[in-house]
Structure formats: structure tokens, C-alpha cells
Amino acid sequence: xxxxxxxxxxxxxxxxxxxxxxxxxxxxxxxxxxxxxxxxxxxxxxxxxxxxxxxxxxxxxxxxxxxxxxxxxxxxxxxxxxxxxxxxxxxxxxxxxxxxxxxxxxxxxxxxxxxxxxxxxxxxxxxxxxxxxxxxxxxxxxxxxxxxxxxxxxxxxxxxxxxxxxxxxxxxxxxxxxxxxxxxxxxxxxxxxxxxxxxxxxxxxxxxxxxxxxxxxxxxxxxxxxxxxxxxxxxxxxxxxxxxxxxxxxxxxxxxxxxxxxxxxxxxxxxxxxxxxxxxxxxxxxxxxxxxxxxxxxxxxxxxxxxxxxxxxxxxxxxxxxxxxxxxxxxxxxxxxxxxxxxxxxxxxxxxxxxxxxxxxxxxxxxxxxxxxxxxxxxxxxxxxxxxxxxxxxxxxxxxxxxxxxxxxxxxxxxxxxxxxxxxxxxxxxxxxxxxxxxxxxxxxxxxxxxxxxxxxxxxxxxxxxxxxxxxxxxxxxxxxxxxxxxxxxxxxxxxxxxxxxxxxxxxxxxxxxxxxxxxxxx
Length: 523
Hints:
6 strands, alpha+beta
């Protein structure tokens, strides 16, 4: 097929309709810069692909080329906005039309694609590749004239001849090869892990086998443990009751050790009991005597204290002395102002002096009684304190003896057991518990049979897992080889495809060069 015409209106810089008919030969479009020559090529590409690739994803002020596909100039809007590209197909003309509001007809696009491209070998987005290889712009010429990197030249060549899907397949092959290598590495690590587990399981099997005891030793230990717990049970059921009995025996050992340490205190306390009781009886007798003495001293009506009597005697004696010093005054007593004779006054003073002497004697007697009462009270208090002390000592001694006897009976010994008997029982129980513990260690080896069975099962499972891991490793190695082979094949196929496309394009390029080269007559 060949390009037949381009018909556009309201497209980019064209406000009015423009239609260009292309003849069978060459068509030259001439004009100064800015008159719209490149827009004709843009219209062909837009009509065929729906986009203009030369601008790419360039943006400016948040605007892209999509904002300038249709007319945006000043003045009245164009009558229509469309682009139509026509192709000669023999006597028929295929048309592709796009407007601002509608895309191209899919059936027309399919018809153009079937005639322009080889459906069996066409790359992805074949019409874009066709435009990229057919519409050679001045930008491409400028870029080709510059020094380019080899990789950029290779990419440009691939784009030009439509070999753009090779990199995709090479990349897929590389990803597949990388994934295969990761799986291979994981499989190798799994094999190493399972191999270590097999070795560890084998070590556990050896440990269980080394720890197993002979059957005769197990039978003897079981017999002793049955006697220790006091009942018959299968050997594999002796461990728990034996440990319970051992725990009870250890508690008895603690009690026996306490009894050994407390025996001397209990023995001394029991020996002190008769003396304490006798002492309490004597102190109680002294207390009764002190109470009787105090009661005798406090019998009768309350009397004045010795201090009061002594004060009264001193006051009366001072009054007598004052009266003698003053004497009668005009026949009257200076103390009571009564009329008396001199003999009567002297007789009264003598009587008062005698009474003062009696009061003083009574004060001395009362002071003696008070001292005796205080001594009786002190004796009673001392007797009570001594009685309380002896009673407390007796109570504590009796409590010590009672607790000691109760713990003797609780542990199975007579209440009058001596120190030697307690020590002998302690040593015997210690030996019994030591033997039971040794027998328990032997009985525990019965569990090694179950442990050995579990270890053997674990070893078998580890070996099976190792076998599966090795099989998986073999599959991973084959997959890695195949993935690498696919990657290599994709690269070879890409090179071969590029060579094949170049072979097909070279004649066309030679013909194009022959036709476009300057004519010698135009020099």
C-alpha cells in the first residue's frame, strides 16, 4: 500500500481545511520554516497511531502535546476538527479518520494493519514502529549526526527496523534465569540444613543407645523402688510415685535434722521442769505471806499520815512557844483573848506542849508503820514478778518439750527417743533416699527406649527430608540450566532476528539512497 491523501482541518496550526493528494511517484513539500510542513507528517502519524511520538512525554506549565493536537489559536473556532489519512490498496482506498471527539474505526484500523504489517511476525505496536521507521524527521537526522553511544545507536537501529521486542524477551529470560538461580541456592541451603539435621538426629540416637541400662540392673532397681514406695507397680510406672516418696522422705530428713539440733534444748527443758515447779510453789508461798503481812498492816480505819502528824506537832509547839513569849496581856490570853489567871495560862501551855509531844510520838510511830507497809508491798511485788518469771519459763519449757515429743511421734519415733536413735534414723533415711534416687536414674533409662524410638523416627524423617531436598536440588539444577539456555537462546534469537531484519531492510535502504542521492546534473 501507498499513501493516497492527507485531509485535515482544525489540526494543530491548520485552522482551515487542507487536503493533499499524493501521486504514485515522489511528493516534495516545500516552504519556509513555520508554515506547517512537519504538521503534515504529524497528521499522518496521528491518523495512523492516534499520537505524535516525537514530543514524547514532554510537559511545560503542566501542559502536554495532547493539549495542542487540535487548533487552539485566536479567532473563531474551525468548522471541523479531524484528520483523515488514505491509503491506495490496488483500486481501493482505505481511510482512517480521527476527530476531536471520536477515535478511528476499529475495522478500518484492522484493515490497514493487515495490509501494512505481517501479522505473523509484527512486533508490539506495529503501526508506531512503522511510523518510526518510515517518517524520518529532521530531529532524527540531527541526532544521527551527533556522536552517540554504541548502546544508543543499537537502540535507535532496533527502533528503526522494528526490532523492539527482543529486549523484552531477553529481560524475561534474565528474570527467569535469576529466579532459577535463587531457587537453586534455596535448594542447596535446604540440602545443607537437612544434612545437618540428619547428623544431629544420628547423634541423638547414639546418645540414647549409650544411656540405656542392662535389664538386670533395671529389674533390681524396680524391686527396690517397689519396696521403697510400699506397693507393686510396673517398672515404667514407678518413677512418679517414687519421686513423690522421695520428696516426702526429704521433708522427713528436714524434720529429723531439726530434732537432732533441738534434742539438747528439749532435754534440758524437761530436766528443768521439776525445779521450776518447786520454785513456783516456793514463790507462791512467799507471795501469800507478803499478802498477809500487807493485809495486817492495812487493817482498821485509815489514819493520818506521819507527815500530817509531824506538821501538827510542829504547829502546836510553835503556838506554845509564842504564847510563852507573849504571856498574859491585862489578864487575857493573847491567843484566844479569854480572861484567865496566870496559873491557868501556864497550865494550858503545859497541856498544849504535852499534846504536841504526843503528836510527835504518834508521827514517829506512823512513819514506822508506813515503812513496814512499803516493805510489804515491795515484797509482794517482787514475789509476783518472780512468780510470773518462773511461770513463763515453765510454760516455754513445757512448750519446747511438747513440740519436740509431737514431732518425734509425727516422724514415727517414740516420744522418749534419744539423740542416738534420732541420728541413726536420719542416717538410715538418708541412705534409703540416696539408693532410691540412684534406682530412679536407672528406671528413667526405660524412657530412653521411647526416646530411642522417637530419635530413630526423627532420623528416618530427617533422611527422608534430605532425600526430598536432594531431588529438589536436582530439579533446581536442571531448571537453572534450562533457564540459562533460554536466556542464551533469547539473546541469540534477538541477534538473529536483528540480522534478518537488516537483511530485509538493506535493499530498501540501498534503493532509497539511490533515489535520494543528488543528481550529477544538478551540481
